[in-house]
Amino acid sequence: GDSVTQMEGPVTLSEEACLTINCTYTATGYPSLFWYVQYPGEGLQLLLKATKADDKGSNKGFEATYRKETTSFHLEKGSVQVSDSAVYFCALGYNDMRFGAGTRLTVKP
Amino acid sequence: EAGVVQSPRYKIIEKKQPVAFWCNPISGHNTLYWYRQNLGQGPELLIRYENEEAVDDSQLPKDRFSAERLKGVDSTLKIQPAELGDSAVYLCASTGGMGEKLFFGSGTQLSVL
Predict the structure, then answer these.
(1) Does A89 contact chain B (CB < 8 Å)?
(2) Where does the pLDDT of residue A43 fall: very low under 50, low under 70, confident under 90, or very high at 90 and above?
């Protein structure tokens, strides 16, 4: 069945460092791809999405491009902030949403 | 507008006891999901409803878990009897259309002792 695989964490970075969290997917069709974020003490919320190949989703300085040729949807940010500390989940789906295991990011001042 | 509402927020029970979780999705959202999230892992789909119909319950352990969504609005997830391994956060989510983002509730954290 459809699934996503995320890079294992945790990831610890200094403020203003570059971030990449890898995500690859397996799907029989052409699902939408998502990144969700869970801040400490809060519920899951959508960070960004892409609905078809070559689409780029972006929000809050984060970006991810739907790469059909490499079946990837890596999350990137050029300069992270302490407030970006959270758990990030890659997900795919159209009818059913499937989530990766999550990557915990800690940004230190 | 209210988001997805779940209750209770926390539940502590002894093994073999029954437990139920309640979810009220966003108004107008026909699709409702129940997920289970174990500590340090991503949410795992248990069941998906389209209105009052369960269209994907392949991951629901049917020997002890049951769910219903009467009238296609609120939903209840039940475990009877609970086992130690059922300790997790149970999340409810809803969406207004296929391929659209999910709106999640705060979850119910279940501890089975």
Answers:
(1) yes
(2) confident
